[in-house]
Design a protein that fits this description.
Structural class: mainly alpha
Order of helices and strands: HHHHHHHHH
Low-confidence stretches: none
Oligomer: single chain
Number of strands: 0
Largest sheet: none
Strand content: under 5%
Distance between the termini: 50 Å
GO molecular function: COPII receptor activity
Mean pLDDT: 78
Number of domains: 1
Main location: membrane
Number of helices: 9
GO biological process, one term: endoplasmic reticulum to Golgi vesicle-mediated transport
Family: Belongs to the SVP26 family.
Membrane topology: Multi-pass membrane protein
């Protein structure tokens, strides 16, 4: 392998790392918006359910399996049942657990369909998978908030009334920040 080949491989690796980091930062920003505007988020997710239904109807005209599209549309409306008490989501409820199982099965339903019907170009498959299969579950996933931190009873039990709701991404990033603070030398904390 030549120097330019190694340089190219290093560029691809760094590009992939940068893309993953950018995606994580974007999800963090979106989760901040979701936390700031829960009512608007609920409306956007509700509209996206109906938008995905339109995508399914239009995809049927392109020759996709009608029964798979009907199952996917039904799954999207089951996801929407999680919006009843939005932004609070009971992670142990039958609706949430069923939504998670449906999201995985819906993905594999279309994954195996597209693997057996190779007439669709890759970019069209990716576009349909994002807009027709993943859009609503991803929107719900980004908007999840831990119920224990959100309930007033949890704050009263700990006596910490200043603790605000945090979504999943904010909790993960704040834990990374705290671990960095522990690694800094004590002389930096004194300044």
């Amino acid at each position: 392998m030549t120097f330019l080949g190694l340089l190219s491989a290093a560029g691809w690796v760094l590009g992939l790392i940068f893309a993953i980091f950018s995606l994580a930062c974007g999800l963090y920003v979106v989760s901040e918006w979701v936390e700031e505007y829960p009512r608007l988020t609920r409306q956007v997710i509700h509209v996206s359910v109906w938008t995905v239904d339109v995508v399914h109807v239009l995809a049927a005209f392109d020759g996709l399996s009608v029964w798979r599209l009907a199952v996917s549309a039904a799954a999207n409306h089951i996801y929407a049942l999680n919006l009843a008490r939005f932004p609070l989501v009971d992670l142990g409820s039958a609706t949430f657990v069923g939504s998670c199982l449906l999201a995985v099965s819906n993905h594999f339903l279309f994954f195996f369909y597209f693997m057996s019907h190779l007439r669709f170009p890759f970019d069209q498959v990716c576009a349909f998978m994002f807009f027709g299969v993943w859009l609503v579950p991803l929107a719900l996933f980004v908007s999840l908030t831990p119920v224990d931190a959100s309930l007033p009873s949890a704050q009263a039990a700990t006596g910490d009334r200043s603790k605000n709701r945090q979504n999943i991404f904010k909790m993960v990033f704040s834990r990374f920040g705290r671990s960095e603070e522990r690694r800094l030398p004590q002389s930096l904390h004194a300044e």
